[in-house]
């Protein structure tokens, strides 16, 4: 059976933290691939100003140089609110020969009790939690935890820095940084 990691995210923008956790979990669990799934409308956040196509394009650029990373557009194609339950249900129905692992940072681990249909979802997929500064990895739900070198970067910090005209170099892939400048995202010139 193939083993595939899923990294769902808003990716507004994608950054080195996302790539680092995907690579670490890929290595440590011996996964075949990691699929990055940009959400259409994230369930727990107010709508982002960034166009979904820009988030998708940036995610594609971010994973460009890594042959075992893929982008999956299932949530964008489904449109509406991107509940993970719906995504996982569709994927496991479609790919019966794949074992899926849903990767997430500590902030999402803490939020798990509020996820849509979480009681059913935990029976359907293995959750893999990784440390994020300021968040606990303990959960009332069964999750597997993986030790990673903690790198506390966030999309919020990157949006703020770019908006203030400060450098975000080395916090995100160069191709994504160039795309942000070309498109004038987050108040960049
Ligand atoms: N630096 C990081 N370390 C560990 N996990 C991370 C890190 N950044 C993001 N993640 C995880 O990646 C997934 C997608 O995150 P998301 O796209 O919301 O990025 P974010 O940096 O948390 O964004 P924002 O600051 O806009 O909330 C989530 O499970 C999140 O916990
Ligand atoms: O399904 C839910 O109720 C749910 C609630 C919160 C987060 N998620 C998913 O968790 C992933 C990370 O979320 P985010 O907003 O930090 O990018 C992303 O795939 C979200 O759709 C899912």
From TrEMBL:
<keyword id="KW-0808">Transferase</keyword>
<dbReference type="InterPro" id="IPR014729">
    <property type="entry name" value="Rossmann-like_a/b/a_fold"/>
</dbReference>
<keyword id="KW-0662">Pyridine nucleotide biosynthesis</keyword>
<feature type="domain" description="Cytidyltransferase-like">
    <location>
        <begin position="6"/>
        <end position="161"/>
    </location>
</feature>
<keyword id="KW-0067">ATP-binding</keyword>
<keyword id="KW-0548">Nucleotidyltransferase</keyword>
<dbReference type="GO" id="GO:0004515">
    <property type="term" value="F:nicotinate-nucleotide adenylyltransferase activity"/>
</dbReference>
<keyword id="KW-0547">Nucleotide-binding</keyword>
<dbReference type="InterPro" id="IPR004821">
    <property type="entry name" value="Cyt_trans-like"/>
</dbReference>
<comment type="function">
    <text>Catalyzes the reversible adenylation of nicotinate mononucleotide (NaMN) to nicotinic acid adenine dinucleotide (NaAD).</text>
</comment>
<comment type="pathway">
    <text>Cofactor biosynthesis; NAD(+) biosynthesis; deamido-NAD(+) from nicotinate D-ribonucleotide: step 1/1.</text>
</comment>
<keyword id="KW-0520">NAD</keyword>
<protein>
    <recommendedName>
        <fullName>Probable nicotinate-nucleotide adenylyltransferase</fullName>
        <ecNumber>2.7.7.18</ecNumber>
    </recommendedName>
</protein>
<dbReference type="InterPro" id="IPR005248">
    <property type="entry name" value="NadD/NMNAT"/>
</dbReference>
<comment type="similarity">
    <text>Belongs to the NadD family.</text>
</comment>
<dbReference type="Pfam" id="PF01467">
    <property type="entry name" value="CTP_transf_like"/>
</dbReference>
